[in-house]
Amino acid sequence: MPLETTVILAVAIVVAAFCAILGGARLKQSSTTLIEILVLSGLGIGAVMTPSPINRFFLFGVLGFAGYSLMKSHGPGITKTISLAQIALAILLVLGSSLSDDSFTMYAGLVLAVTLVPLFPFHLPFASLVSFSHGAMAGLWTTVFLSLGLAEITQLPTVLSEGMPGAIAWLALGSAVYASFKSLGQIQVRPLLAYATIAQVSMLWGLTTVFLTFSPWLIPFGLTIALVMAGLLFTYYCIQQRFGTHAIGSLPGLALVMPRLGVLLIILISIAVVLPLVPVLSGLPALPTVDSQNVCLVIMGFIIFFVWMFGSWYFSHLMHQTAFGKARPDIPYTDLTTGEISALALIITTASCYGLLI
Amino acid sequence: MTMFVAILVPLLPLVSGIILGAFGKSLRETSSKVGVSALALAFFCSLWVLYAASVDGPIRIMLPSFRSGTDGWFQFGLFIDRLAAVMMVLITSVSTVIHVYSVRYLEGDPGYTRFYSLLGFMTFVILSLVSSPNLLMLFVFWQLLSWALYLILAFNHSHVPAYQNAFKTFAVHRIGDVSFLCGIFLTYKYFGTLEFDELFQRASEQSHVISLLPGNLLEVSAVSAITFLIFIGAMAKSSQFPLHVWLPDTMDSPTPVSALMHAGIINAGGFLLNRLAPLYALSPDTLHIVFVVGVLTVVLGASMMLVQNDIKKMLGYSTMGQMGYMIMECGLGAFALAIFHLIAHGLFKASLFLSAGNVIHAARHEPKFPESSSHKPPKLPDQATWVTGMIVTLIMPLIILMVAHDLLEVPLQDAHGAVIFLFFSWVTASQAIFSLYRLHAVASWKVASAMIAALFLIGFTYLWAGEIFTHFLYPGPGVADGYFVAAALNPIVFDLLIMVSTLFIILGWISAHTNAKGQKVWNAEKWQAIQQKLYVFLINRLYVDLLYMRLGNALFQWAQKIGNRF
Question: Can you give the residue range of the structural domain that contains B491?
Answer without folding.
Answer: 379-521
